[in-house]
Design goal:
The chain is an alpha/beta fold and 394 residues long. The chain folds into three domains: 112 residues, 3-Layer(aba) Sandwich (Rossmann fold), CATH 3.40.50.10800; 120 residues, Rossmann fold, CATH 3.40.50.10800; 80 residues, NadA-like (Rossmann fold). Helices cover 38% and strands 15% of the residues. The chain contains 15 helices and 15 strands. The strands form three sheets. A six-stranded mixed beta sheet has the order 1-15-5-4-2-3, sandwiched between helices. α9 links the parallel β9 and β10. It is globular, with a radius of gyration of 21 Å. The termini are far apart. 48% of the residues are buried.
């Protein structure tokens, strides 16, 4: 197949899947403990299929994947790192992307025509990416054109967006960003225009603009695609520097300012480290904020005996706690959960993909339409060309 386009508890943390948070943004239910693979032979089968394929296959694994899947990844990373790795492997006939749909699309865009990208489960999507459709963005751009600001607006889309949105961004002179290079992407955008339309995560856009670029909070407005004119007046659009799309991550959007206060009361001396997809008030209440790679590097460099509360996806936090037993690492939210769509990539799906490829059958191929891919490539190439680090001020 080719796809083109709770009750009181004495525990510090509620048992997984045993509670809900009515104050959280719309998100996914906590699924509880991930079940083990039903077939104990799956690990051996995956290893055998991967060995049979040899250098013909390159497996990418996002940090939020299950451990049973991550063990077979040739490279693990966040979306930015994996995008670069996909582009740097021209000799691999097959790219098996253990992540979600938009990541596999980006890999297809960045790799050559002779390479084929496989997503082990086509249902592995992203609720944030689904919050901005191509038609909605076209209509929003029409609104910006009508009020006379489109010509001075540069679109910047988060990696967590569809190929169609990346294509729109590339066609209109914009770039892609990830949580690890959003500051550099926005700096570039403001060198090329007076305003930014940031898609589709309002929190990453707001946190980066206000906390890293020093843009006043009042210069950021939220465009709601479900309201006429985005729910904004023409003057609000003319005055704004950051036009933020109304979208969010269903996992990171769960964290609240109250979670931060509770963990500080529960764990004396705790360091609170959160992802920039969290709400602005959560980021302000935290001690540190950074991308997935920043979180990993910070914990690796932390002193033994220190305590950390991490506001990001559960698979990664559990893996970090296991890797650093000399530090106390806990989840920021009491009703923790996995990213449900990331967890659709499980060992049975991975085994099916690898064994099919070993037989010469390409299943679940992700292929982006050529014109869309060409425009999206423009935006992705602009991202990949950004400097790897911001210059340090004297």
């Amino acid at each position: 197949m080719t796809f083109t386009e709770p009750a009181a508890t004495p525990l510090a943390l509620l048992l997984l899947g045993r509670g809900t948070d009515p104050d959280s943004e719309r998100g996914v239910d906590c699924p509880g403990e991930l079940p083990p693979a039903s077939d104990p032979s799956l690990v051996a089968r995956a290893a055998a299929a991967k060995e049979a394929l040899g250098n013909r296959v390159f497996v990418l694994g996002h940090h939020y994947q299950r451990d049973e899947v991550i063990q077979f990844a040739d490279v693990t990373g966040d979306s930015f790192k994996l995008a670069r790795e996909a582009a740097a492997r021209p000799d691999a006939e097959y790219i098996v992307f253990c992540g979600v749909h938009f990541m596999a699309e980006s890999a297809d865009i960045l790799t050559s025509a002779g390479q084929r990208v496989v997503l082990p489960d086509l249902a592995a999507g992203c609720s944030m990416a689904d919050m901005a459709t191509y038609q909605q963005v076209v209509e929003a751009w029409d609104v910006l054109t009508e009020v006379g600001v489109a010509d001075t607006t540069v679109p910047v889309t988060y990696m967590n967006s569809s190929a169609a949105i990346k294509g729109f961004t590339g066609e209109h002179g914009g770039t892609v960003c990830t949580s690890s290079n959003a500051e550099r992407a926005l700096t570039w955008a403001f060198e090329h225009g007076q305003k930014v339309l940031f898609l589709p995560d309002e929190h990453l856009g707001r946190n980066t603009a206000v906390l890293q670029l020093g843009i006043p909070l009042e210069d950021c407005v939220v465009f709601n695609p479900h309201k006429p004119g985005g729910g904004l007046t023409p003057q609000q659009l003319r005055d704004a520097k950051m036009i933020l799309w109304r979208g969010h991550c269903s996992v990171h959007g769960r964290f609240t300012e109250e979670n931060v206060a509770q963990v500080r009361a529960r764990v004396p001396g705790v360091n609170v480290l959160v992802h920039p997809e969290c709400r602005h008030e959560v980021v302000l209440a935290a001690d540190l904020v950074g991308s997935t790679e920043f979180i990993i590097d910070t914990l690796a460099a932390a002193e033994p005996g220190t305590s950390w509360a991490i506001g990001t996806e559960l698979n990664l936090v559990r893996r970090l706690a296991a890797q650093h037993p000399d530090k106390e690492i806990v989840f920021l939210e009491k009703t923790v959960c996995y990213c449900s769509t990331m967890n659709r990539i499980d060992l049975p799906h991975l085994v099916h993909s690898l064994e099919s490829l070993a037989r010469g059958e390409v299943v679940n191929r992700i292929s982006v339409e050529p014109t869309m891919a060409a425009n999206a490539r423009l935006a992705l190439d602009r991202m990949l060309a950004l400097p790897q680090a911001m210059p340090v001020a004297d």
